[in-house]
């Protein structure tokens, strides 16, 4: 998967590439958008450094995609190949904490590409969300991918209808959980997860309850014990184009659970940005749609940090587009 998307299959023993340009380019984030941009720019002869906050590069490829879908050995192999081509990757370096965008500019980086993804999870805002056993899907998947001992329990409720929710449910199944229910507040037709992923999850034993939403999480001695839900009906389409879920009065029911995994959406964490970089509605970075340049000259952005949660392919396309724009910018083009 990564081999084909990063286009390295024909360069298995790629030696370091000659630096034909003197300009340094900084890339913030080592997910698919950042790695793709780094690959494209190193081919063009630039000095490329990737800054990654985690201890290992890969972003969402490493953090959230389960092993059964993308073996981490594949991610490691491709990242090592990019490094051999001459890309420098600095891990455990958080922009906004260890250094700032202004610091990068002062250190001689002539262009910056922000590709930090969307790793900040939304909260439900319901009673009981702070109980032990209420897990964030991204954190749950990350801990499993990092090899931590994760035992969510036998009875799992996954809240949400996207690909992350499905990945969390299938991962819990592989950890030995016996009863897994995905609760989604709309119908199957509105479910944003890939249909083939949903079908595979169901064939493995994951159950999906449609038109159901959580109302409160119940517990005892600080630990989750049950989930109170309410049934929904669909009304008129909302701003997303999907029919709005409406609670059915008096339809509440309670189900016993050992853990609740929340997967209701992700958003970029933009707390590290300087005030000069414009933020658009939806808490995403505002960019020129053609050049991907932000409101600060020489600073570009792409991937989930601009699109909101999107696909790996969309992030790769953003990385390619950003590399072309940065190359044009550094050569003095429009």
Number of helices: 10
Ranges with pLDDT <50 over ≥5 residues?
1-11
Helix/strand structural class:
alpha/beta
Beta percentage is 25-35%
Give an overview of the whole structure:
The structure is a single chain. The protein is an alpha/beta fold. It has two domains: 2-119 and 268-330, 3-Layer(bba) Sandwich (FAD/NAD(P)-binding domain); 123-264, FAD/NAD(P)-binding domain (3-Layer(bba) Sandwich). Helix content is 28%, strand content 25%. The protein is built from ten helices and 18 strands. The protein has helices at residues 2-5, 32-43, 60-63, 72-84, 101-106, 137-145, 163-174, 195-204, 304-307, 312-330; strands at residues 24-28, 47-51, 88-90, 109-114, 120-121, 134-136, 155-159, 179-184, 207-210, 212-220, 223-237, 243-247, 253-256, 259-262, 266-267, 279-280, 284-285, 299-301. Strands 3-2-1-4-18 form a five-stranded parallel β-sheet. The protein has a five-stranded parallel β-sheet with strand order 6-14-7-8-9. Strands 10, 11, 12 and 13 form a four-stranded antiparallel β-sheet that branches. α8 links the parallel β8 (179-184) and β9 (207-210). The protein is elongated and about 65 Å long.
């Amino acid at each position: 998967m990564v081999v084909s998307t990063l286009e390295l299959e024909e360069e298995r023993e790629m030696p370091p590439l000659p630096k034909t340009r003197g300009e340094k380019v900084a890339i913030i984030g080592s997910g698919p958008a950042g790695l793709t941009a780094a690959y494209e720019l190193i081919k063009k002869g630039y000095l490329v450094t990737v800054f990654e906050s985690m201890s290992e590069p890969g972003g969402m490829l490493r953090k959230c995609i389960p092993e059964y879908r993308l073996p981490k050995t594949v991610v490691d192999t491709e990242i090592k190949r990019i490094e051999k081509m001459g890309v420098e990757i600095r891990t455990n370096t958080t922009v906004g904490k260890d250094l700032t965008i202004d610091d990068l500019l002062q250190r001689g980086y002539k262009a910056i590409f922000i590709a930090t993804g969307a790793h900040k999870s939304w909260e439900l805002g319901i009673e009981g969300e702070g109980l032990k056993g209420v897990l964030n899907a991204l954190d749950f998947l990350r801990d499993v991918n990092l090899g931590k001992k994760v035992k969510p329990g036998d009875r799992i409720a996954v809240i949400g209808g996207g690909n992350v929710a499905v990945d969390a449910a299938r991962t819990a199944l592989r950890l030995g959980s016996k009863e897994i229910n995905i609760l989604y507040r709309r119908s199957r037709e509105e479910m944003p997860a890939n249909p083939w992923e949903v079908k595979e999850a169901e064939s493995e034993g994951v159950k999906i309850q449609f038109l159901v939403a959580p109302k409160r999480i119940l517990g005892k001695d600080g630990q989750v014990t049950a989930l109170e839900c309410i049934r929904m009906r669909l009304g008129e389409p909302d701003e997303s184009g999907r029919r709005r879920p409406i609670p059915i009065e008096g339809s509440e029911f309670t189900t016993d659970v050992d853990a609740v995994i929340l997967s209701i959406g992700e958003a970029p964490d933009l707390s590290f940005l300087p005030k000069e970089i414009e933020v658009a509605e939806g808490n995403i970075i505002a960019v020129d749609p053609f050049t991907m340049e932000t409101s600060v000259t020489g600073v570009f952005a792409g991937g989930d940090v601009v699109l909101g949660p999107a696909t790996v392919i969309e992030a790769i396309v953003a990385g390619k587009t950003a590399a072309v724009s940065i190359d044009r910018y550094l050569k003095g083009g429009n």
